[in-house]
Structure formats: C-alpha cells, structure tokens
Amino acid sequence: MDENGSPTCPEKEAPRDGGSFWAWPTPFWLVGVIVIGGAFGVVAYQLSQLWAPLILFPLLVGSVFGATLVGILRLGRMGNRRAAWLGVFLGVAVLVVAQHDRAYRAACWKIDEEARLFEKAQKMMPEDLAGKVAARPDGLLDFLSKRARYGRVIVTPGGSTYLRGAAVWWSWAFDTFLVLLPAVWIVIGSFRQTFCPTCGSWYRTVRTGPLDRATAEKIVELLGIEPPEIGVETGAKDGEKRPEGRYQLSSCEGGCSPVRLRFRVGKTVQEVWLDPTRREAVCRLLDEGLREV
Asked: To the nearest 10°, the Cα dihedral for 265, 258, 206, 199?
C-alpha cells in the first residue's frame, strides 16, 4: 500500500482506466444511450398506463435502465469513466423527456380525436352543439405547464393527494431522481472492475478460492507487503482454529496489463498488482497450499 492507502506493486501498478475521452467508443456510446433512453421512455409511459405504483415504478425503470447501460458498457468496451457518466446522466434525461413527450403526444391525439368527433356531431346537430373543444398545447413545455396548472393526483396507501403548480414540478423532479438513483448505483458497481486500455477489455476473475494462514504469510513475504491482521475462526470441528480467508486473481482478456491479486484474511483485505514473474510465483504458492490441505 502507498502512503494514500492505494494498492501498488513494487514493479507494476494498476492500469490507468478508460483511455481518452475522445476515443472511438465515446460517440457510439453517447448515441446509443440517447436511442435507448428514448425507447425506455416510450415503454415506461405505456407501462405506466397499466401499472405504476408510487416510488416503486421509477425505481424499477431506473434499475432496468442501469443494467442495460452496464451491458452496453461491457459489449462496447467503453472504459472512460467521464464519458460513461456523461452517458448515464444524458440517458436518464432523455428517458424522462421521452416519457413526458409520449404523454404529450397521447394528449394531442386525444384532443384531435375529440375535435374530429365534435366537428362531425356539430354538422349533424348545429343548434344543440355550440362551443369548441380544448385547444392543442403549443409544445411539450406548454403541455407540462398546463398539467402543472391543472394539478396531479398522487395515490398513496393512505389516500390521494392533489398537487398543483410548483408541487407538480417538484414531484416530476423527484420521479427523475428515483430513476437516476438505481441507474447510478448499478453503474458504480460495474466500475469496481478495472478496465485495460491496451486491449480494451474489463478485468475478469481468472482464479479464486479459499486461503489458509500459512499460504497468506508466504504471499506476504514474497511480495514484501505489510502483513495483514490475521484472524481465526473458532467454528471448526474438534475445537480446531482455522483462518478465514479467500483470494481472487483478476486479469484483462489480452493479459497485457498487470494481474490484480486481492486476498482477505480475517478482517483485512490486501490488493496488489503482479507482473508475470510474480504472478507465477504466487500461483505456485497457491498450488502448494492446495496440496497441503
């Protein structure tokens, strides 16, 4: 560990994530999130007409959307975090706008249909039908302003709440936050893995398993790192004390960047980066530990 607590290796360090912001995946990623965000907005509106429980519905939409974005990040080998976060926020914004735009277009279609039927009925009975139907909104912003002015009904288990004016805008902002929250949370979880800018792949686990105390001490001595505080587990048979530990080796697809070794013994987690020589030495110690068990 360095003085800031970051994991290091005496000869190798973690690869710098992501590459350039202007690398080729960025424009495709941004265009993709706009298209997918728009599609999610349309589908979310259609589903909201059938089933849209308060709070739960936007959380579900955000969760599915976040998982979809992670899938695109993986398939598109998009590793630049700044571009990725720009895409996440842009995608959620497009999703919310598309959902309101779909409601706007549905309202316009309903007004046009009512106007057509009214005009047809007025020709048949001009004396009995006087007046006119509601005018179409001048645009999406005008539609939202009128909806806020007319009010929004929020159905809760304890009854219904009627919101008007600024309260409606705040309720829409809260819905947007509920969509954004799980999407951001899921993407953050995906960024726990390291990205290799050389071969353009995300690190994946190549080996994992239990780690005994003796092997952990040999690895610590080999790598020359600070010894962890090794704890013991007393739940073994016949009162035997056994260490509670586990290790994980992660690497990029091309094997062109240092291998990450993360191991836990007791309550302490250690993380170091290994060059090919040190990786082979660590794997030999792990193999010896398995033979001794």
From this structure: 150
DSSP symbol at 251: E
Cα-trace Rg, the chain:
29
Distances (CA, A) of 183 to 33, 65, 90, 177, 193: 12, 6, 12, 10, 17
Quick one: pLDDT at residue 132? Answer: 62
Question: What pTM, to 2 d.p., does this model score?
Answer: 0.73
CB 73 within 8 A of CB 183: no
Model confidence band, residue 239 (pLDDT cutoffs 50, 70, 90): very low
How many Å apart are CA 161 and CA 155, to the nearest integer? Answer: 6
- Residue 231 zone, left/alpha/beta (φ > 0; ψ -120 to 50; rest): beta
Give pLDDT, residue 267: 72
The model's pLDDT over 82-141, given as tens digits with 9 standing for 90+, comes to 888 999 999 999 999 999 999 999 999 988 887 787 777 666 666 555 556 667 888 999
Q: How far apart are CA 247 and CA 264, in angstroms?
A: 6
Q: Is 254 exposed, middle or buried (0-12, 13-18, 19+ CB in 10 A)?
A: exposed
Rounded to the nearest 10 degrees, the angle between the axes of helix 81-124 and helix 25-48 is 40
Query: Any idea how long the chain is?
Result: 293
Q: Which phi and psi angles does 230 have, rounded to 5°? A: -85, 125
Sign of the dihedral through C-alpha 78, 17, 227, 291: positive
Mean pLDDT of the chain: 81
Q: 151 in the Ramachandran plot: left (φ > 0), alpha (ψ -120 to 50) or beta?
A: left
At residue 170's C-alpha, the angle toward residues 172 and 144, to 5°, is 55
Exposed (0-12), middle (13-18) or buried (19+): which is 236, by Cβ within 10 Å? exposed
Residues 6+ apart with CB under 8 A from 163: 151, 152, 153, 154, 171
